[in-house]
């Protein structure tokens, strides 16, 4: 009897897991179905399941890439809206899994509170972003200025209201499950909302910091699948039996090369390299600037050992291309672990995909499990190696001060420049 019980458990599942599941009503899998469009089913009916899945994934991948190009063309506002929509859908998919797997149908206010906490966290993060990037607009409008001044207090009050609602909803027979789902909601918020907020911050640094990392993850996903499909023989990790070393290595080299080429093309266009800023005169976003040194061609010396191989002594490239190597390397070597993490999560709850939103691909979360990890890395990378003081933001804040405060800063800055001999040289000029 003990042997049969252990055989029925998932890999790595303990006795305590089984007891918890019986208390929570069992962990029956979320139902999945074949939602492939009927047109594709008829067109590919003569193929084996392996090749049918290959064609379905390929066609839908091309459709998603086309959609990606369209939203890039439509500009930053549309991109930010899409990021918000993806965030909401990913949150919905993960919350629904908890709702179904643990049969949380009788929990009072569970879904209402989950969405309420999502609203609170988004209000906090996006309020911080608006105050940071639209400072002049906020100071110009009285209601926005008040909201900005007390933003963190309002955010805390909103969260505290939800916290009190959760405590009031506690029911004796559901205590353990209610606290479990409370933690489920907050971990989901940490993973989904925080990462999407970082994606938007990367976008404001310049669309190239948004497009290149995302494209590298997409490229790695496609090329790893292609190399694994045609050449894969050696399993990579037990969490994802279909992943192979051939796909992992082939995806790495393909992604690094793709990142270098894409960065070279995009670095020549100001609309991609300039920070996304809000123009108070036109009340719209602008991406026009003098490109920084990152996006100006420079000559680099090639190591002597490679002279005979390449036949070149110098190579002309953009400095950003060097940074793209770091981005594409992370997307290839560390990014897939986001997918492995998601695979482990799905195995733990006996589900094939997070949802059936995209035929052949699963849910939105199945496509963005690596993107969220990449967003954090890009944000940390920019803060550590790229970002410096922003003069335009300092000037905006300076102009909102009282006249006496502005004069104090002016006199302090003037004295500093005179001591350094800079102001005198400027007056002579």
Automatic annotation (TrEMBL):
GO terms for cellular component: endoplasmic reticulum membrane. It is found in: Membrane. It holds the Pfam family CTP_transf_1. Its EC number is 2.7.7.41. Residues 1-22 have a biased composition (Basic and acidic residues). Keywords: Lipid biosynthesis, Lipid metabolism, Membrane, Nucleotidyltransferase, Phospholipid biosynthesis, Phospholipid metabolism, Transferase, Transmembrane, Transmembrane helix. Pathway: Lipid metabolism; Phospholipid metabolism; CDP-diacylglycerol biosynthesis; CDP-diacylglycerol from sn-glycerol 3-phosphate: step 3/3. The chain crosses the membrane at residues 109-126, 153-171, 178-200, 206-232, 244-266, 320-342. One of its GO terms (biological process) is CDP-diacylglycerol biosynthetic process. The keyword Thylakoid does not apply. Its main location: membrane. InterPro entries: PC_trans, PC_Trfase_euk. It is a multi-pass membrane protein. Residues 1-37 are annotated as: Disordered. GO terms for molecular function: phosphatidate cytidylyltransferase activity. It catalyses: 1-octadecanoyl-2-(5Z,8Z,11Z,14Z-eicosatetraenoyl)-sn-glycero-3-phosphate + CTP + H(+) = 1-octadecanoyl-2-(5Z,8Z,11Z,14Z-eicosatetraenoyl)-sn-glycero-3-cytidine-5'-diphosphate + diphosphate; 1,2-di-(9Z-octadecenoyl)-sn-glycero-3-phosphate + CTP + H(+) = 1,2-di-(9Z-octadecenoyl)-sn-glycero-3-cytidine-5'-diphosphate + diphosphate; 1-hexadecanoyl-2-(5Z,8Z,11Z,14Z-eicosatetraenoyl)-sn-glycero-3-phosphate + CTP + H(+) = 1-hexadecanoyl-2-(5Z,8Z,11Z,14Z-eicosatetraenoyl)-sn-glycero-3-cytidine-5'-diphosphate + diphosphate; 1-octadecanoyl-2-(9Z-octadecenoyl)-sn-glycero-3-phosphate + CTP + H(+) = 1-octadecanoyl-2-(9Z-octadecenoyl)-sn-glycero-3-cytidine-5'-diphosphate + diphosphate. The keyword Zinc-finger does not apply. PANTHER family: PHOSPHATIDATE CYTIDYLYLTRANSFERASE, PHOSPHATIDATE CYTIDYLYLTRANSFERASE 2. Belongs to the CDS family. This is Phosphatidate cytidylyltransferase. The gene is Cds2.
């Amino acid at each position: 009897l003990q042997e049969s019980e252990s055989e029925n458990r998932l890999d790595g599942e303990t006795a305590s897991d089984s007891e918890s599941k019986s208390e929570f009503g069992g962990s029956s899998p979320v139902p999945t179905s074949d939602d492939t469009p009927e047109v594709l089913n008829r067109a590919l009916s003569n193929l084996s399941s392996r090749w049918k899945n290959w064609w379905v994934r390929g066609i839908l991948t091309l459709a998603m890439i086309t959609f990606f190009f369209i939203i890039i063309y439509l500009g930053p506002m549309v991109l930010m809206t899409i990021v918000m929509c993806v965030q909401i859908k990913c949150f919905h998919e993960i919350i629904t899994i908890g709702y179904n797997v643990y049969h949380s149908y009788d929990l009072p206010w569970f879904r209402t509170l989950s969405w309420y906490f999502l609203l609170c966290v988004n209000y906090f993060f996006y309020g911080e972003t608006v105050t940071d990037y639209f400072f002049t607009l906020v100071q110009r409008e009285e209601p926005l200025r008040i909201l900005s001044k007390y933003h963190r207090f309002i955010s805390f009050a909103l969260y505290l209201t939800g916290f009190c609602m959760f405590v009031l909803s506690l029911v004796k027979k559901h205590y353990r499950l209610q606290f479990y789902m409370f933690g489920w909601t907050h971990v989901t918020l940490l993973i989904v909302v925080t990462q999407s907020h970082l994606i938007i911050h990367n976008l404001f640094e310049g669309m190239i910091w948004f497009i290149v990392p995302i494209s590298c993850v997409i490229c790695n996903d496609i090329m790893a699948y292609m190399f694994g499909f045609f050449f894969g023989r050696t399993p990579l990790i037990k969490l994802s039996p279909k992943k192979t070393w051939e796909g992992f290595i082939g995806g790495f080299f393909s992604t690094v090369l793709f990142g270098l080429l894409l960065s070279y093309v995009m670095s020549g266009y100001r609309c991609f390299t300039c920070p996304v800023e809000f123009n108070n005169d036109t009340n719209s976003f602008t991406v026009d600037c003098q490109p920084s040194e990152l996006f100006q061609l420079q000559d680099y010396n090639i190591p002597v050992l490679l002279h005979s191989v390449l036949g070149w002594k110098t190579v002309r490239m953009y400095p950003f291309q060097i940074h793209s190597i770091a981005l594409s390397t992370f997307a290839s070597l560390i990014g897939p672990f986001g997918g492995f993490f998601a695979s482990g999560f799905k195995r733990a709850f006996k589900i094939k995909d997070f949802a059936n939103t995209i035929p052949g691909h699963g849910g939105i979360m199945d496509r963005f499990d690596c993107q969220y990890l990449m967003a954090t890395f890009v944000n940390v990378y920019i803060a550590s190696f790229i970002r410096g003081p922003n003069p335009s933001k300092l000037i905006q804040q300076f102009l909102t001060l009282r006249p006496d405060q502005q004069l104090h800063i002016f006199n302090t800055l003037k004295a500093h420049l005179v001591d350094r001999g800079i102001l005198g040289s400027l007056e002579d000029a």
